[in-house]
Write a structure and sequence with these properties.
By secondary structure, this protein is an alpha+beta fold. It has helices at residues 10-19, 29-42, 76-80, 102-105, 141-160, 175-192, 206-213, 215-232, 256-259, 261-276, 300-318, and strands at 46-52, 56-63, 69-71, 87-89, 112-119, 125-133, 196-203, 238-243, 246-252, 285-291. It folds into two domains: 10-156, GAF domain (Beta-Lactamase, 2-Layer Sandwich); 175-318, Reverse transcriptase/Diguanylate cyclase domain (Alpha-Beta Plaits). It is built from eleven helices and ten strands. Helix 7 (206-213) runs antiparallel to helix 8 (215-232). It is elongated.
């Protein structure tokens, strides 16, 4: 096994990494969402966002294996950051740099690695978005473009770390964060020719709750509804609070025929919760779902507008 050499600018690179203030921080949905998406799109067992510190590789987001950090001399990603292009190892057992690596010789028996180096705002290569498999494989040109795109999303998250993209009350992505994530998610769906559906959900008679029971009761309803949304929809779906009592869910890889199923589950769960605690206000909602069509929806705003119109049609019909 050959350990990774240090890049000539490693001191400056590490300083740039540490200025992000991301090392040794808790998991964040912004990164977990991307590793879940990478794992699903490439059909691999493991996907990571990791950072190469001075003496270690530290993992910010990990899907498929429990890993927090590993010595830098054993890190695949420490090799990947030596170049700005994709770093691909089709078969680790055939590569002198990795055949003796403990992760290759033993558990988890890694046979394939592909890492997309990710840059801080100053251009320093601070880590990777990588995918790993237990069998040898290769990447097509389209695979490489897709992995590069996902790496760009990780870099976008670096640039938005200082921006407010999370709703304080519910912990969901807010409108600003949703629009940014939706833009890239729809671009990927367009490229891969996968369907996508955007739902707008609006709580019914929520103003009356605030007016009669007070804003504290309204806040409890918003938090409970947010919790139910996260429980019902998939981890890879983008769930957001757009503002007030309006929520959005973007489902990638889902067409209109299947998009309505989770709504039925959500309604049943909300009714069961009310039956178990009838003293708590019943939560009802109206929803509109718009299927993504790149000709009719050249931007996220057009898709949001159509889903919003459909939601209000449903709300008027319920009245």
């Amino acid at each position: 096994m050959t350990g990774p050499p240090l890049p000539p600018d490693d001191d400056a690179r590490v300083e740039s990494l540490r200025s992000l203030r991301v090392l040794d921080t808790p998991p964040e949905e912004r990164f977990d969402r991307l590793t879940r998406l990478a794992r699903r799109l490439f059909e691999v067992p493991i996907a990571l966002v990791s950072f190469v510190d001075r003496d270690r590789q530290w993992v910010k987001s990990c899907q498929g294996v429990e890993m927090l950090e590993t010595p830098r001399e054993l890190s695949f990603c420490a090799h990947a950051i030596l170049q700005s292009a994709l770093f691909v190892v089709p078969d680790t057992t055939q590569d002198d740099r990795f055949r003796g690596n403990p992760a290759v010789k033993g558990d988890p028996n890694i046979r394939f690695y592909a890492g997309r180096p990710v840059k801080a705002a100053d251009g320093a290569l601070v880590g990777t978005l990588c995918i790993l498999d237990y069998r040898p494989r290769t990447l097509t040109a389209e695979d490489e473009r897709l992995l590069n795109d996902l790496g760009t999303l990780v870099e976008e998250e670096f640039r938005t770390l200082q921006l407010v993209t999370t709703d304080d009350l519910t912990g969901l992505t807010n409108r600003r964060g949703f629009r940014a994530i939706a833009f890239h998610t729809l671009a990927l769906c367009r490229r891969l020719q996968k369907p996508a559906t955007l739902m707008i959900l609006d709580l019914d008679q929520f103003k009356e709750v605030n007016d009669t029971l007070g804003h504290a009761a309204g806040d409890r309803i918003l938090k409970e509804f947010s919790r139910q949304l996260l429980d019902v929809f998939r981890d890879s779906d983008v769930v957001a609070r757009l503002g007030g009592d309006e929520f959005a869910v973007l489902l990638s890889g889902t067409d209109e025929a299947h998009a309505s199923r989770p709504l039925g589950v959500l309604e049943a769960r909300l009714e069961a919760a009310h039956a178990a605690a009838p003293e708590v206000s019943r939560i009802r909602f109206s929803a509109g779902a718009a299927h993504f069509d790149e000709e009719r929806h050249p931007t996220v705003d057009e898709l949001l507008h159509e889903a919003d119109l459909l939601m209000y049609q449903r709300k008027r019909a319920r009245r």
